[in-house]
Amino acid sequence: MRRVMWLLFLSAVAVASLISWSGETVAASGGASGKLTQQAVGGGVTVTATLLKDQAESMAVKLALDTHSVNLDGYRLDTIATLRDEAGKTYPVLGVEQASGGGHHRQAVLRFGKVGPEVKMIELIVRDVAGVKERIFHWSTTE
Question: What pTM was computed for the model?
């Protein structure tokens, strides 16, 4: 039994390595199911997006960039991220709060305009980080 578990573990590591090597991967402890935190890995940079619950006056997402190989100081978090609803309406960043880090680790809370009650799904698009054209994170607004 131990041998089988060990082989399964090694197989999972090998598959994960191949996926990471081949490009971008998305791991959601969230996603369209309504969970709040999601990650996308590509170009040597892990992008983590967490939908925050304080949505009374606006939508807010905590965005974090982490790497061991790329200097992240050149990325303006307010210009690389856009919020979009299922109808295609976009919501630009209105404010950046709690910005911290530098070099290989950066994070901030991005504040967007309030979406209407008719919106059922939103997605955060993070563009042009470490050679990855787009990373898209999805959330349901009905849960």
Answer: 0.73
